[in-house]
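retry 2 of 3: previous attempt timed out while embedding zinc ion. Reduced batch size to 1 and resubmitted. Inputs unchanged:
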Amino acid sequence: MQLNTFKWHTAMKLKLLVTLLTAGLAAGCQATAPKQVDYSNVKLATGNIVKEGEVYIPAWVRNEAQVNSVLKSNHYCADNIVLRFQSMTEQNIADSCKLLLETQARFHKLFNTEGKPLLHDNNDVLRANIYAGRDDYVKYVTDHFDVPSNNGGMYLEGLPHLEDNSAEYVAYLRNGQVWNLNHEFVHYLDGRFNTYGDYCAPPHDNHYGPEYCPEPAAEPPYLIWWGEGLGEYVAHMENNPAAIKLAKEKTYQLSELFYNNSANWDTNRIYRWGYLAVRYMMERQRDKVEDMLFHVRRGDYPRYQKVIKIWGTSMDADFHAWLDTL
Ligand SMILES: [Zn+2]
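retry 2 succeeded.
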């Protein structure tokens, strides 16, 4: 897909040119290839927090030459989904594209969001950056994308209100598949169609890179239960045996799961119980989900938090009764 490649590079070059003009460095400077850009005289913003006189240039744009020297190949699954990878078989590529396109269709069917991105969201293209394995991911991902490597992949939303923003996710191959491909992709869809603003906009208590969201953290409740739970729900739908096995234990009340955060983070609570919470809300309390999303889609997070507080413990008993039906 030559045209798309051309558009991508043109957009990137434009971004660099705008950046240089903004920084007052344009005079006599030839903005050609990214590797020739010198950022040493630009006052860079820290993560997503852009203060007066600072310029937002995410790590993956600053490091584009290094990233491209490792992730050498590109493949377009569709106009809006690009794979940039180190080493993938034809089968990997075909399987990944099929999975992403199916997930995208399922998401739009669930939420009726096809062609209806949020206001001020320019993340029309998503690029998946896929390392050949866990070792390469750990070796490169922090240098390339300024993210921790102690994870199974991450979605990097950037600043979606910028017209030349690029939405990226980082992942790696494990057991012949792109690990967590679906989960991370749902974060992209949720960010573009459900959750207004950049990663720092909804209430949470994560201050890691590449966003480095401002301190202090917002007061709870956060939106973590929804984001992580939805990632698992849309990725697996009814097919999540690990979560369904846990359901019998009734470890948490629904009202507790709404308060998931970084401090109480564990795999079961965040992903499996998050999945159960979101699945319950989607299947049994859809009207309430729509009430909540009305505020979340407008970025009215104080009202979102008020909604969660009004719900309180009112659904706890029904949630536990529903767990018995799984
Ligand atoms: Zn996630």
